[in-house]
C-alpha cells in the first residue's frame, strides 16, 4: 500500500485528545539540522530537521524502517553522521555535545550485561553516570519502584521481555536526567504494560520535569501521551505537528475488522486513506486499522463512521475507537 | 573514563569466571613440574609463565573486558552517555592492565608459596629477578592485548580476538625468529618480543633497560591510537 506518499497531504488526527501542555518559553533541548546518514548505498536519513523543546513529550512516529532508531543513534553518537549537526541543550561544539550527552537518559535496545541482576546492571550505569557512591543504592531502589520492577537476584538473561523493557526504562531515568529518549518502549509489553508505560512517561515529564522523546510505529499509541509529534518517513521528518493541529484539521480512527481485502476495497472506494494496518489483535482474524481521512469539512466524522461501518460486518466495526477502549 | 573503569572493575571482580581462571592458573602452577630439580626451578617458572600463564591470564581479561561488551551492547550505553570513543578505548586498555596485574602478582605470591612448600630456597636476587621477569611479561601481555583489542573492536567478533591472541602469544615470536635467522634482518630484535627480552637481559646485567620504554612507546601508543582512529567511524549495531 503506498500510503506513505500521502503523509505530506494529510495530517493524522484523533478526536479524543486531552489538553496540550503548552509553555510560553520554548527552549530547544535537542536540535537536529539536516542530518544525513547512509549505509552503503542506502540513504537512511535524508536531511532530518527536528526540534524538541524543554518540557515536551515528543512522539517520533514512523513505520518500521523509517529511521526512528537511526535518528536516536545520531543524537547519542552511536553512529557517525554523513552530514548535519546535532545540538543538545545548546551545545556548540563536539566537546560540549559530549558533555551534554550525560544529560540524556535513554532506552535504545537492551544494553545490559547478561549475567548481572537488575540491581548490578543499574549499579554499573550509575557508576558510569557519576552518581555518588553513597547515593547509588537509594537511587536504584527509587527507579526500580518507579518502573515497578522487583529487585530480584535473577540475571538479566533470564528476564522476560516486559522485565527487560522495564529495566531499560529504569536505566534511562537513573539519576533523573533532563532528557529522556525512549525507543519503542512498549515493544513486547502486554496491554497493562503499555498503559503503565504511557502513565510513566507523563509522570516523568510532569513530576520530574524531564523532556521526553518517545518513538512508536503507531500514532494511536502516543496520541494521548505526546503533545508534539514528528512524523518520519523514508528518512525525513516530513512534518512536526502538535496535538492542537491534530484536533483541528483532520481526523483519524482506528477500527477492528475481520475481512481484510473486503474492508480495503470498500474503504478506499469511500475515499478513506488507510494509514496503517496492524495484525496485532487477539485473534488471527482480527486486523487493526489506523485510518487517515480527508479533512473534516470534506468528510465529516459521521460520514466516515458510516463509510467504515458500511464496509464492515456490523459486529466487527467499531469506529471511531479509542485504543484503550478497544476490547483486546 | 575513570567512572567506566570503576564500573568495569567492580562488575568483573564480582564475576565468577575471572576467579575460576585465576584458580586454574594457580593450581596449574602448583602442579607444574612439581618434581623439578632445584637447579632448573627458575627456568621452569619462566616456561610456565610463557606457555601457560600468559594465555590463562589473557583469556579471562579479554572475555570479560571485551567479550561481555559484544554480547550486551553496554559499550553503546556508555558512549551514549557522552564518553568519547577514544577515551573508551583507553579505558578498556586500562581495564586490561588492572585485571591482569593482580593475576601476575598472585603468580608471584604462588612462587613464594610453592618454594616454601617444596622447601626450595631461592636467593633474594632470584626473587627480585623473578619479579622483574613477571613485570616484563605483564608488559608483553599488555602489548598483545592492545593489538588483540584492535581486532576485536574492528571485527566486532571475539573469535577473531582469541585467534589474534593465540598467534601473538605462541606463533609470532618463533616466526620472527625464523625470518631473522633466514634473512639476517633484525625483525625479532625490533619487535616488542625482542625489545622486552633484551630489556630483561640488560636489567639482569645491571644496565639501564632503554628497550622497555621503547617497547611501550613503539607498540602500545601507536596501536591504541590506530584503534581509536579506526573505531571512531565504526558502526555500532545492536
Ligand atoms: N547498521 C545498519 N546497516 C545497514 N542498514 C541499516 C543499519 N541500521 C539500520 N539500517 C537501515 O536503516 C533503515 C532505518 O532503520 P531504523 O532502525 O532507524 O528504523 P526504525 O524507524 O527504527 O524502524 P523500526 O520501527 O523497525 O524500529 C532501515 O532500512 C534499516 O534497514
Ligand atoms: Mg527502531
Protein model, in words:
With 328 residues, chain A is α/β, with parallel strands linked by helices. Chain A has 2 domains: 7-245, P-loop containing nucleotide triphosphate hydrolases (Rossmann fold, 3-Layer(aba) Sandwich); 251-325, 2-Layer Sandwich (Alpha-Beta Plaits), CATH 3.30.70. Chain A has helices at residues 68-76, 94-101, 118-129, 133-146, 161-172, 191-208, 219-222, 243-249, 260-269, 301-311, and strands at residues 28-39, 42-53, 57-61, 85-88, 104-107, 179-182, 211-216, 228-233, 236-242, 252-257, 273-278, 287-292. In chain A, the strands form 3 sheets. Chain A has a 6-stranded mixed sheet, sandwiched between helices. In chain A, strands 2-1-4 form a 3-stranded antiparallel sheet. In chain A, strand 6 (179-182), helix 6 (191-208) and strand 7 form a beta-alpha-beta unit. Chain B has 238 residues and is mainly α. Chain B has one domain (2-232). Chain B has helices at 2-13, 16-31, 41-72, 74-79, 85-117, 124-155, 158-183, 187-190, 192-204, 211-231. Chain B is globular. The mean pLDDT of chain B is 91. The A-B interface holds A 39, 73, 76-80, 98-102, 104, 106, 108-116, 120, 123-125, 127-130, 171 and B 3-4, 6-8, 10-11, 14-15, 68, 71-74, 76-84, 232-233, 235-236, 238. The complex binds adenosine-5'-triphosphate and magnesium ion (MG). Adenosine-5'-triphosphate is lined by residues 39, 42, 44, 62, 64-70, 217 of chain A.
What is the compact description of this entry?
Chain A has helices at residues 68-76, 94-101, 118-129, 133-146, 161-172, 191-208, 219-222, 243-249, 260-269, 301-311; strands at residues 28-39, 42-53, 57-61, 85-88, 104-107, 179-182, 211-216, 228-233, 236-242, 252-257, 273-278, 287-292.
What kind of sheet is the major sheet of chain B? none
Largest interface pair: A-B, 32 and 28 residues
Sketch the topology of chain B as an H/E string, one letter per element. Answer: HHHHHHHHHH
Q: How confident overall, as mean pLDDT of chain B? A: 91
- Looking at the overall shape, the CATH architecture of the largest domain in chain A is 3-Layer(aba) Sandwich
Shape of chain A: globular
Q: How many DSSP-defined strands of chain A? A: 12
Mind summarizing the main beta sheet of chain A? 6 strands, mixed
Please write the CATH class name of the largest domain in chain A: Alpha Beta
Low-confidence stretches of chain A: 1-24, 279-290, 313-328
CATH superfamily of the largest domain in chain A: P-loop containing nucleotide triphosphate hydrolases
How many domains make up the coordinates of chain B? 1
What portion of the residues of chain B fall into strands of 2 or more residues? under 5%
Small molecules (ligands, ions, cofactors) in the structure: adenosine-5'-triphosphate, magnesium ion
Gyration radius of chain A, in Å: 21 Å
Helicity range of the residues of chain B? over 70%
Q: Class by helix and strand content of chain A?
A: alpha/beta
Order of helices and strands of chain A: EEEHEHEHHHEHEHEEHEHEEH
Amino acid at each position: 500500500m503506498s500510503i506513505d506518499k500521502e503523509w505530506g497531504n494529510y495530517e493524522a488526527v484523533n478526536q479524543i485528545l486531552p489538553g496540550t501542555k503548552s509553555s510560553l518559553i520554548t527552549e530547544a533541548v535537542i536540535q537536529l539540522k539536516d542530518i544525513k546518514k547512509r549505509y552503503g548505498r542506502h540513504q537512511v536519513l535524508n536531511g532530518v530537521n527536528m526540534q524538541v523543546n524543554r518540557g515536551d513529550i515528543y512522539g517520533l512516529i514512523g513505520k518500521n524502517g523509517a529511521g526512528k532508531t537511526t535518528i536516536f543513534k545520531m543524537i547519542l553518537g552511536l553512529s557517525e553522521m554523513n552530514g548535519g549537526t546535532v545540538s543538545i541543550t545548546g551545545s556548540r561544539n563536539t566537546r560540549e555535545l559530549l558533555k551534554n550527552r550525560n544529560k540524556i537518559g535513554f532506552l535504545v535496545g537492551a544494553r545490559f550485561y547478561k549475567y548481572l541482576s537488575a540491581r548490578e546492571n543499574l549499579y554499573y550505569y550509575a557508576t558510569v553516570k557519576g552518581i555518588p557512591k553513597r547515593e547509588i543504592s537509594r537511587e536504584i531502589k527509587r527507579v526500580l519502584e518507579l518502573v515497578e520492577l522487583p529487585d530480584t537476584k535473577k540475571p538479566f538473561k533470564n528476564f522476560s521481555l516486559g522485565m527487560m523493557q522495564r529495566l531499560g526504562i529504569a536505566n534511562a531515568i537513573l539519576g533523573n536526567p533532563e532528557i529522556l529518549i525512549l525507543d519503542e518502549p512498549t515493544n513486547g509489553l502486554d496491554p497493562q504494560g503499555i498503559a503503565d508505560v504511557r502513565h510513566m512517561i507523563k509522570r516523568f515529564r510532569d513530576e520530574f520535569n524531564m523532556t521526553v522523546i518517545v518513538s512508536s510505529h503507531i500514532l494511536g499509541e502516543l496520541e494521548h501521551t505526546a503533545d508534539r509529534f514528528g512524523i518520519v518517513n523514508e528518512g525525513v521528518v516530513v512534518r512536526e505537528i502538535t496535538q492542537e493541529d491534530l484536533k483541528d484539521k483532520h481526523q483519524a480512527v482506528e477500527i477492528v475488522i475481520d475481512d481484510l481485502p473486503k474492508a480495503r476495497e470498500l474503504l478506499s472506494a469511500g475515499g478513506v486513506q488507510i494509514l496503517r494496518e496492524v495484525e496485532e489483535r487477539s485473534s488471527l482474524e482480527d486486523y487493526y486499522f489506523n485510518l487517515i481521512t480527508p479533512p473534516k469539512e470534506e468528510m465529516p466524522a459521521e460520514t466516515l463512521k458510516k463509510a467504515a461501518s458500511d464496509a464492515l460486518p456490523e459486529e466487527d466495526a467499531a469506529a471511531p475507537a479509542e485504543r484503550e477502549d478497544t476490547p483486546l | 573514563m575513570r567512572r567506566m573503569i570503576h564500573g568495569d572493575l567492580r562488575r568483573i571482580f564480582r564475576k565468577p569466571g575471572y576467579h575460576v581462571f585465576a584458580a586454574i592458573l594457580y593450581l596449574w602452577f602448583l602442579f607444574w613440574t612439581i618434581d623439578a630439580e632445584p637447579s632448573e626451578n627458575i627456568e621452569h617458572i619462566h616456561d610456565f609463565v610463557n606457555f601457560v600463564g600468559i594465555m590463562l591470564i589473557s583469556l579471562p581479561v579479554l572475555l570479560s573486558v571485551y567479550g561481555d561488551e559484544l554480547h550486551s551492547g553496554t559499550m553503546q550505553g556508555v558512549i551514549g552517555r557522552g564518553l568519547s570513543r577514544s577515551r573508551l578505548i583507553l579505558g578498556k586498555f586500562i581495564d586490561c592492565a588492572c585485571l591482569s596485574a593482580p593475576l601476575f602478582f598472585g603468580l608471584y605470591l604462588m612462587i613464594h608459596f610453592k618454594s616454601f612448600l617444596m622447601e626450595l630456597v631461592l636467593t633474594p636476587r632470584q626473587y627480585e629477578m623473578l619479579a622483574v621477569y613477571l613485570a616484563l611479561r605483564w608488559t608483553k601481555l599488555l602489548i598483545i592485548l592492545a593489538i588483540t583489542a584492535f581486532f576485536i573492536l574492528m571485527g566486532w567478533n571475539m573469535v577473531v580476538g582469541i585467534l589474534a591472541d593465540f598467534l601473538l602469544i605462541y606463533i609470532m615470536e618463533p616466526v620472527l625468529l625464523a625470518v631473522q635467522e633466514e634473512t639476517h634482518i633484525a625483525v625479532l630484535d625490533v619487535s616488542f618480543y625482542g625489545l622486552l627480552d633484551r630489556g630483561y637481559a640488560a636489567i639482569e646485567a645491571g644496565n639501564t633497560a632503554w628497550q622497555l620504554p621503547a617497547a611501550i612507546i613503539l607498540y602500545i601508543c601507536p596501536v591504541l591510537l590506530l584503534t581509536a582512529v579506526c573505531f571512531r567511524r565504526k558502526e555500532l549495531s545492536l
